[in-house]
């Protein structure tokens, strides 16, 4: 998506991802934490789009297999919402585009995309989230664990959800010190 002149959004947007950019090193563990903080309240990580913890809602599509998916292509699960802005955008969720989108969803898509999200400036945090998103697929062992949990349990418990996010022991009550 060109980030040229003409968008009318008040927040200034500087595309910090040059063409030909490839994902540098990062941490799936840090990415999982950042995802939990910034994304999990609106996005499922499960193939069936479930939202297994209180306070979360499937406002957006599941992030299961989001990498290299075409925007708006996911089968809508639950109440997940996807607007024509994303469907018509033609964006493919490469790492570079995910980086740009996470920085400023509306500026990047040049549309009033319905993701009510301030954006993350920190490059490394976005890189880490990309690394985490790469685990959400059947090719990754963590992804296979998520698939197994989806198949075997009607709904994972909060603890299992935390474990799937790499936060075992934190989502549930912490062990006595
Ligand atoms: C306040 C809720 C909310 C938060 C927080 C949020 N999103 Fe979203 N997201 C949405 C909604 C709603 C959409 C659909 C927007 C539309 O269709 O206009 C969406 C769409 C997306 C899409 C496009 C999916 C597709 O299939 O095309 C991606 C990728 C995405 N979000 C990633 C993220 C990431 C990564 C984070 C955390 C850094 C995040 N979102 C935080 C609500 C949210």
From TrEMBL:
Protein known as: Cytochrome c domain-containing protein
Domain Cytochrome c as annotated: residue spans: 26-137
Pfam families for this protein: Cytochrom_C
Family of this protein: Belongs to the cytochrome c family.
UniProt entry tagged with the keyword Endoplasmic reticulum: no
Gene Ontology terms: cellular component: mitochondrial intermembrane space
Biological source species: Vitrella brassicaformis (strain CCMP3155)
Cell compartments where the protein resides: Mitochondrion intermembrane space
Domain of life: Eukaryota
PANTHER family: CYTOCHROME C
Keywords recorded for this protein, A-Z: Electron transport, Heme, Iron, Metal-binding, Transport
Gene Ontology molecular function, alphabetical: electron transfer activity; heme binding; metal ion binding
SUPFAM superfamilies named among the record's database cross-references: Cytochrome c
